[in-house]
Design a protein that fits this description.
There is one protein chain. The mean pLDDT is 88. 44% of the residues lie in helices and 15% in strands. The chain has 13 helices and 13 strands. It folds into three domains: 53 residues, lambda repressor-like DNA-binding domains (434 Repressor (Amino-terminal Domain)), CATH 1.10.260.40; 126 residues, Response regulator (Rossmann fold); 152 residues, Response regulator (Rossmann fold, 3-Layer(aba) Sandwich), CATH 3.40.50. The longest helix has 17 residues.
């Protein structure tokens, strides 16, 4: 038989009223009791009746994940989705996953989504996490939200990692190998990742005593096709780079494609590195050196914090999750083949 609310109360050693308060996100429950009840809900696989739950607490118990068109950076979005699902497993909340094209009438579309689903909280992914008009609208509607990797410093709850430092780390790796002409394929303009990863690239060059050369930087949009186009542009230069840092793995894979077309051996004749740590970085040959973005951890933390904000409306938190460098076979000293190794970032919170 399915577990009942009485079973959860007995299992956790509290009253039925306390279980009901936890389920409905009531603020006047001690944190130790809340954790105990949520553990019992998970252990007993208790599923509250959604109709009764909504009537009792005026809540939908839905958490929405709002993201842009997933065709570009689909692996990144999938990792975030997994993190959201994992975070909801131990709670009475269910996720609602919804893509919104940022080129459409975004505010009207999100208004319709909220009216139809009545989510208790939202998690927003760039570029939506950087949309000032959208965030103002959510404040007007009194909808709790958390952002992931927002470039806006004023968001109440944001979870990310030090992308600028991570980009600098991987470019410093190329410098340490002996590369002095390092190309960069930047991401989509207006996206926080574009600014942070370009800034990290420039930081590493400056610290390495190398003058920034704008001819070695070209634009991209985080797609494989833009990596191919950017790779061709950089390798067509009269004095082409010996290494290319692409702002994400899909574009880096595009560069490797161009290298194969031109019979350039990677990494002996061209070193290539990316950013994000998606599964495709292990499928290309040679395996791609990259920064492992902590997508699942960021999504889990964002959900946990925004649900906490329902109970604590004044909560403000900017959390930074550690990243990891995967220094694989696609980078080497000019004329040498590299060995793989992993490097973790300092733990910053």
């Amino acid at each position: 038989m399915p577990a009942r609310i009485e079973d959860v109360a007995a299992h956790s050693g509290v009253s039925i009223k306390t279980v009901s308060r936890v389920i409905n996100g009531h603020p006047n429950v001690r944190e130790k009791l809340r954790v105990r009840v949520e553990a019992s809900i998970k252990a007993l696989h208790y599923v509250p009746n959604p109709s009764a739950r909504s009537l009792a607490g005026n809540r939908s118990h839905l958490v929405g994940l709002l993201y842009d068109n997933p065709l570009a950076g689909s692996s990144y979005i999938m990792e975030l989705i997994v993190g959201v699902l994992q975070a909801c497993e131990s709670t009475a909340y269910n996720p609602v996953l919804h893509p919104f094209d940022s080129k459409d009438d975004l505010i009207a579309a999100v208004d319709g989504f909220i009216a139809q689903n009545r989510p208790d909280a939202l998690v927003l992914v760039p570029p939506h996490a950087n949309n000032v008009e959208l965030l103002r609208r959510l404040d007007q509607l009194d909808v709790r939200y958390a952002t992931i990797s927002s470039k806006l410093g004023e968001t109440r709850i944001d979870v990310g990692f030090d992308e600028r430092r991570a980009a600098a780390d991987i470019v410093e790796h190329l410098l340490a190998l002996g590369h002095r002409r390092i190309g960069h394929i930047a991401g989509l303009k207006g996206h926080g990742a574009h600014a942070w990863r370009l800034a990290g690239y420039r930081d590493a060059l400056r610290d390495g005593g190398i003058e920034y050369d704008k001819a070695l930087v070209t634009g991209g949009d985080f797609t494989f096709a833009s990596g191919v186009a950017g790779g061709r542009q950089l390798l067509d230069l009269p004095d082409p780079p010996t290494a290319i840092f692409a702002a994400n793995d899909e574009m880096a894979c595009g560069v490797i494609r161009v290298a194969h077309e031109r019979k350039l051996r990677v990494p002996r004749e061209l070193s290539v590195c990316g950013f994000d740590g998606i599964h495709a970085s292990l499928l290309v040959s040679p395996e791609l050196a990259t920064v492992q973005q902590p997508c699942r951890e960021m999504a889990r933390s964002a959900v946990e914090l925004v649900l906490r904000a329902i109970r604590e409306p004044s909560l403000r938190k900017h959390l930074r999750i550690p990243y990891r460098l995967h220094l694989r076979e696609s980078t080497a000293q000019p004329g040498r083949v590299a060995r793989s190794r992993n490097v973790s970032s300092p733990k910053k919170r």
